[in-house]
Specification:
Layout: H1 3-28, E1 48-51, E2 57-61, E3 65-66, H2 76-86, H3 98-111, H4 121-130, H5 137-153, H6 156-166, E4 173-174, H7 176-184, H8 193-201, H9 206-209, H10 215-231, H11 237-244, H12 263-277, H13 279-284, E5 288-291, H14 295-320, E6 327-333, E7 340-344, H15 369-378, E8 386-389, E9 394-395, E10 401-402, E11 413-416, H16 417-422, H17 426-436, H18 438-447, H19 469-480, E12 484-485, E13 491-495, E14 501-504, E15 510-511, H20 515-531, E16 545-550, E17 556-562, E18 567-573, H21 586-602, E19 617-621, E20 637-641
Parallel strand pairs: 1-5, 3-4
Antiparallel strand pairs: 1-2, 5-13, 6-7, 6-18, 8-11, 9-10, 12-15, 13-14, 16-17, 17-18, 19-20
Helix pairs in contact: 1-3, 1-5, 2-8, 2-10, 4-5, 4-6, 8-10, 10-11, 14-21, 15-17, 15-20
Amino acid sequence: MTTRSFLAYASLALMAVLIGSSVGFILYFAWDLPEVQALEHFKPSITTRVFSDSNQLLEEFFVENRTPVQLADVPDVLIKALIATEDARFYSHKGLDYRGIVRALVRNVRAGKVLEGGSTLTQQLAKVLFLTPERSYLRKLKEMALALKIEQRYTKQEILSLYLNQIYFGSGAYGIEAAAQAYFGKQARELNIAECALLAGIPRSPKYYSPFRSRENAMARRKHVLGRLVATAAISPAQAEAAKQTPLPAQPTIQHNGPAPAPYFVEYIRQKVEERFGSSILYSGGLNIYTSINITLQGYAEQSLLAGLERVQAKLRRKQSGQQPLQAAIIALDPSTGHIRAMVGGRDFSKSQFNRAWQALRQPGSAFKPIVYAAAIDRGYSAADLLSDTPMSIKIDSKKTWTPENFTRTYQGDVTIRKALAQSLNVPTVRMLAKIGTDETVRFAHSLGIRSPLRAVLSLALGSSDVTLLELTSAYSVFANSGIRLDPVAILLITDSSGRTLYANDSMPVQVLKPETAYLITNLLKGVIDRGTGWKARELGRPVAGKTGTTNDYRDAWFIGYTPVLTAGVWVGYDDQRSLGPKATGSRAALPIWLEFMKYAHQGQEPVDFSVPESIIYRNIDPRTGLLSTERCRSSFREAFIPGTEPRKYCEEQGALDEEPSIQDEAPE
């Protein structure tokens, strides 16, 4: 016997003694270990998923990407592959495989380095669940003690189930179900022999055996696992040969780091859920979040916004080259439910996560005027009532005076409410607000769903108080929905991993306007499209109501409009509130984006007009005076009224034909 052989066998003998001593040591220090009964209440970190209205997966939130699965849903060949490769005597040992430990020691001594650890599946489970990944003899002894305790309390099937749902398979996948999805895009129960062999070989060293890191190592490892399956008669040699010819997956089927569909909306959902349930449940609770977003409409919104920004940017580039990029936002709601159907909060989520659809507070300009006129109509005014469009000055205090002006700085004398809104005249709107009162108008705006604080001053008539695109679009939806307010809804249902309902949308409709009032403001806003600043929206080719908005120095451009089935709002501007440039009005910058989106959204749908309440009456009036028309009136317009608000007097004077309003891109706002 050579000296080297003697030393080797002496070392083995010494190690055998150490193993025996270690068992006693393990049992002696077992009191210092976690109680394995905790496994009965163990809840692993589970992936939370967000779904669209058609149950399409939008995004996943997780600390560890994990989806629990029953052992019955795991292919038998995968279990056999795992046992044959990792722990051949799993069903016969009591937690520790002494033969395996000795075999590992022999190999390690002969190689002069550590090649094997001799750990059983139960030991691996104990290490993952209860211990740190540190490498020390004490940690190894604790691992062995825990394995013995686990085997005493749980069946082999229970241990396998815990192992398969807990172990890390690389590529961000924890547990066999997440691994099947990450590597093959299928459920665990659908895995074939080749796929089972590949996955069974990965847990030993996910970095080394992952096909996404080294195809050669993964191929060799799969071949080894298939050989073990043949050796244990789990599969035939022919099946093994066929499996060896199966191509390896080229890349993960779930790209967690890539952009999610509807990223601004997904982030909106994330914040709302975290606010309600906390970050721990959001990222580890395995929630299923079902939302209102429609992927098709969302795609249209993103496409329209980017194309529209490019068009506006091209016009501004010569004068504003080198500036920050122009931004925009779009929101679309179903007025009958309040469901958010599309949300885009900016041009590029990867560069800016600030959601301008609901986080940006901006002055709405003339887009706020319909709220003022709706408040007036709700208090008995009619579309035919006259307002003075003449210069005015308002004394603010002993030193300051405010002089509101029309966009064109021209005045038309007395005008009807219809004309004032259609042409977006400023001075008559301020006079209207003064008549109904600023405090009352603020209260009215809040009843429509405006949540932002509004200053009770006369400049409110011109949209001087900041609001969000979401709340203003939601307020317009009240007009579209016969006066019924439904708060914006993004989350329809949240369930936990077992299917138990944690949250269900229970928002209740509230009738905040009389249906007649809602219809009359819709009728007026149709006039904005027919004869006013929103004339470009006529291209939609169906009944539509809406309003443009432009703020001082062209800092903000808006268009909010709706059909009977969809309300959409668009805002365009710079984050730092720089000017968009001369003539960059709502009709030029925002309306084209809105129009393109709505064309896509309504394609293939038959035009539907707004429903008219039965009590609404119609009278032919002189649009110049607001009085009932007669033969002596040179023009006539069929106007809608709530009974009792219609004019009683007749137009007696013969005058010139009422001129058509000037409809230009720079139409007054």
